[in-house]
TrEMBL record, chain A:
<dbReference type="GO" id="GO:0042597">
    <property type="term" value="C:periplasmic space"/>
</dbReference>
<protein>
    <submittedName>
        <fullName>Carbohydrate ABC transporter substrate-binding protein, CUT1 family</fullName>
    </submittedName>
</protein>
<dbReference type="InterPro" id="IPR050490">
    <property type="entry name" value="Bact_solute-bd_prot1"/>
</dbReference>
<comment type="similarity">
    <text>Belongs to the bacterial solute-binding protein 1 family.</text>
</comment>
<keyword id="KW-0574">Periplasm</keyword>
<dbReference type="InterPro" id="IPR006311">
    <property type="entry name" value="TAT_signal"/>
</dbReference>
<dbReference type="InterPro" id="IPR006059">
    <property type="entry name" value="SBP"/>
</dbReference>
<keyword id="KW-0813">Transport</keyword>
<keyword id="KW-0732">Signal</keyword>
TrEMBL record, chain B:
<comment type="similarity">
    <text>Belongs to the binding-protein-dependent transport system permease family.</text>
</comment>
<keyword id="KW-0812">Transmembrane</keyword>
<keyword id="KW-0813">Transport</keyword>
<keyword id="KW-1003">Cell membrane</keyword>
<feature type="transmembrane region" description="Helical">
    <location>
        <begin position="223"/>
        <end position="245"/>
    </location>
</feature>
<feature type="transmembrane region" description="Helical">
    <location>
        <begin position="174"/>
        <end position="202"/>
    </location>
</feature>
<feature type="transmembrane region" description="Helical">
    <location>
        <begin position="31"/>
        <end position="55"/>
    </location>
</feature>
<dbReference type="InterPro" id="IPR000515">
    <property type="entry name" value="MetI-like"/>
</dbReference>
<dbReference type="InterPro" id="IPR035906">
    <property type="entry name" value="MetI-like_sf"/>
</dbReference>
Length: 439, 317
């Protein structure tokens, strides 16, 4: 037992100041000033339990924790942050939504807030505030979080994935720069294979990598799972063309892509067996930070996804929205924390820490220093702009999220490419499953 | 106790209220002694099972209460080729893996039952695959069968036997072989050690007598070991079949049901549809569809165990 005297309290205060020093006095001062003037005042004695996805880049986590510490110091809000792996975030958030307890904030993937629109705290004021201050939200980011005119969550960032390739292999195959359309991309993959420096994209149940590149192929051909009115249109000549194109690509890939999960292409690329794939910036970051992989890092470049016959970018990037539950006892603290994270003083440092792994959803951050710090980072700044919402042209929401989670598009392509089903059979199976989900 | 209670109860019999009668009723008391166990079973076994079956008749999704849709989930699954593929995969997986586990396990048990140097150590070593956490061994197998970094492909390539990596988990047939192999590796110790325990209860004098009568080793096995071992075999194989049928971790860590659903078992498909894709009702229907198969497996061994013919040989009904 310790008596609380003025002296011990003072000591505590110094300790607190010391933590402030560690995370940067500027950040701490800013947080204090911000808390005074912010439109949302944290409830006295507020306590927030925050779940987030488990970081891939340690420095991103550090930047996040520094923000949390500054927020805690400035507002006196007790912060309990824990992280879960990608796969577990959604089930845990769903359970919290179901039982009405356990979490105040959840930072998840895809269209998480759309899964339980009746259980979230409307964030309209936060979205307005940030949108006005930082040049507006990108189209896809807004669609991901909005239901009608209501913001169900705030699109914190996008995890961009782009073409990652070895320049030496492309040079050898006779490609001065990375192809910009589908036919020349196929030509490049074939040439890479002929040189025994193959490309490879996951055709297995890889929720991130598999879904993103196969939706790109599908959408690039003007084919979609559903139209604007959520009518199923997967069984179409455009899809058939996409299947043909994908099969030709698959035949030029490194063997084994049908078994790949999200980490397979990272491993193969870093081991020097794979020369072109699509991935988050993590491959490059891993190579850059590994002293033994200096040459590989120097030879690794990024490029935008080639544009398909439809003539506009059709990327599928991973949205990372945060939501607050409406059963939280501290709605103002929750809103304040979300707004606080996205303020320039925090956000740009955070993007820095993420090293390109996170891309802004607010247009004002396009000039953030991270995108010019290394010219190879630049393409990733486009992720939130060039992506379509996860639903393609259909309604964003639970149904579209289910279709992605159940690998309907991935299985359709895999069925055809591995020769398990013909084009008609593969499309019919996807159509039947989609009808069930969109009933 | 009984003769103490009767004389005391008798004189009051005529004017006893129903409550006093009840108070002295031993069945009534017995019922209350059973209540904790019953509550435990109902709460932890019957309720979840019942809830699962109820969910399968609704369109519940994660985060939202469902409505009763009768057998709609089952009708949909009836025409779902992926579901039937998973049923086929599960049966193939269970049948092949269980049969091989039994064969190898019995062989190992017989081997370990012999007198040999370092017997205790060898017996302990057999258990190793069983001790390693399933997810760890599954991850190890995932590396062993990796499409780019497989140690098997690497060795064969360096020996000059093949010139391209074997597509272990990317080819449907290979993938099935690989997951079945991993399951066998994991399941053999359980069968072997349990059968070994059974073997040790067989009295050596039986073998001595048979040998004196000129029985061959095969006859020893066929007419002494095998009949005396059948009750244990029935129990072991029931468990083995149940574990294999409901396997989840191995598949999920190694293939996630891929390539193109070729290794999706009913358990993994149920998880994918219920938890990952959020359709609890449909996922519950898939796992409820496992119940008839599991019941059948239990019935076979249950009735088998009751029959003395199984336990004590052909002519002893």
């Amino acid at each position: 037992m310790q008596d609380f005297t003025r002296r011990t309290l003072l000591q505590g205060g110094t300790a607190l100041a010391a933590t402030g020093m560690l995370t940067g006095p500027a950040l701490f001062d800013f947080a204090k000033a911000w808390a005074q003037s912010a439109p949302w005042k944290a409830e006295p004695g507020a306590k927030l339990t925050v779940m987030r996805w488990k970081r891939f880049v340690p420095a991103e986590d550090d930047a996040f924790n520094a923000m949390v510490a500054a927020f805690k110091a400035a507002t006196g809000t007790e912060m309990n942050v824990f992280s879960e792996s990608f796969e577990d975030v959604q089930p845990k958030a769903s359970v919290a939504a179901n039982t009405g307890s356990g979490l105040d904030l959840a930072w998840g993937l895809h269209t998480l807030p759309q899964l339980f629109p009746t259980k979230v705290l409307k964030m309209n004021d936060v979205a307005d505030y940030l949108g006005k201050k930082y040049g507006g939200w990108t189209d896809a980011a807004a669609k991901t979080c909005k239901q009608g005119n209501d913001w169900l969550g705030i699109p914190v960032a996008t995890n961009g994935g782009y073409m990652t390739y070895r320049k030496s292999a492309l040079d050898k195959a006779g490609f001065k720069e990375f192809p910009k359309d589908f036919p020349s991309f196929l030509e490049m993959c074939k040439a890479l294979k002929a040189n025994n420096t193959p490309a490879g994209f996951a055709l297995g149940h890889a929720s991130g990598d598999g879904n993103s590149w196969l939706h790109w192929v599908l959408w690039g051909h003007g084919a979609y799972t559903v139209d604007q009115n959520d009518k199923i249109i997967i069984n179409s000549p455009e899809t058939a063309k996409a299947l043909e194109y994908c099969k030709a690509l698959y035949d030029s890939f490194i063997p084994g892509t049908a078994s790949w999960n999200d980490s397979s292409n990272n491993k193969a690329f870093l081991a020097g067996e794979l020369y072109c794939t699509a991935n988050g910036i993590s491959i490059y970051v891993a190579a850059k930070t590994d002293a033994s992989k200096k040459e590989l890092a120097a030879d690794t470049y990024h490029a935008l996804w080639p544009v398909g016959p439809v003539g506009k970018p059709t990327e599928l990037q991973l949205a990372l929205p945060i939501l607050a539950f409406n059963f939280t006892k501290y709605p103002n603290a929750s809103k304040a924390f979300v707004a606080f994270m996205l303020e320039k003083e925090n956000y740009e440092k955070w993007l820095d820490g993420a090293q390109g792994y996170l891309t802004q959803t607010l247009n004002g951050y396009e000039s953030a220093p991270i995108w010019t710090a290394d010219p190879k980072n630049a393409v990733f700044s486009q992720a939130s702009k060039r992506t379509l919402p996860a639903a393609g042209i259909g309604t964003v929401g639970e149904k579209a999220a289910t279709a992605i989670a159940d690998f309907i598009v991935v299985d359709m392509f895999a069925n055809y490419c591995t020769g398990t089903k013909d084009a008609k059979g593969a499309m019919a199976e996807a159509e039947r499953q989609l009808k069930r989900i969109y009933r | 106790m009984a003769d103490v209670a009767i004389p005391r109860a008798k004189p009051h019999m005529s004017e006893d209220s129903a409550w006093t009668q009840l108070k002295h009723n031993r069945n009534w008391l017995g019922f209350w002694f059973m209540v904790p166990a019953m509550a435990f079973l109902i709460f932890f076994l019957a309720y979840p099972l019942g809830l699962g079956i109820w969910l399968s008749f609704t369109d519940t999704r994660i985060g939202r209460v469902g409505h009763f849709v009768a057998t709609e989930n089952y009708e949909w699954l009836w025409d779902d080729s992926i579901f039937w593929l998973s049923v086929f995969n599960t049966l193939l997986y269970t049948f092949v893996a269980s049969a091989l586990k039994f064969a190898i396990g019995l062989y190992l048990a017989l081997l370990l039952n012999e007198n040999m140097p370092f017997k205790a150590m060898l017996r302990a070593m057999v258990l190793i695959p069983f001790i390693v956490p399933t997810v760890l061994s599954a991850l190890a197998f995932w590396w062993i069968f990796d499409s780019q970094f497989s140690i098997i492909s690497w060795s064969l390539r360096h020996l000059g036997i093949i010139n391209q990596n074997i597509n272990f988990l990317g080819d449907t047939t290979w993938a099935r072989i690989c997951v079945i192999f991993a399951n066998i590796w994991r399941g053999v110790p359980f069968v072997a050690i349990t059968l070994l325990a059974g073997l040790q209860t067989v009295s050596p004098s039986l073998y001595e007598a048979a040998t004196l009568d000129g029985a061959t080793r095969w006859q020893n096995f066929r007419f002494i070991t095998y009949p005396l071992l059948t009750p244990i075999i029935a129990v072991v194989m029931t468990f083995s079949v149940l574990f294999t049928f409901t396997d989840f971790q191995l598949i999920w860590a190694m293939t996630r049901g891929g390539p193109v659903n070729a290794t999706h078992l009913m358990a993994t498909l149920s998880y994918q549809r219920a938890i990952i894709a959020g359709q609890l009702g449909e996922g519950a229907a898939i796992s409820s569809a496992m119940i008839p198969f599991l019941l059948a497996a239990i019935m076979v061994s249950w009735f088998g165990l009751q029959r003395r013919k199984w336990q004590q040989g052909e002519n002893n009904d």
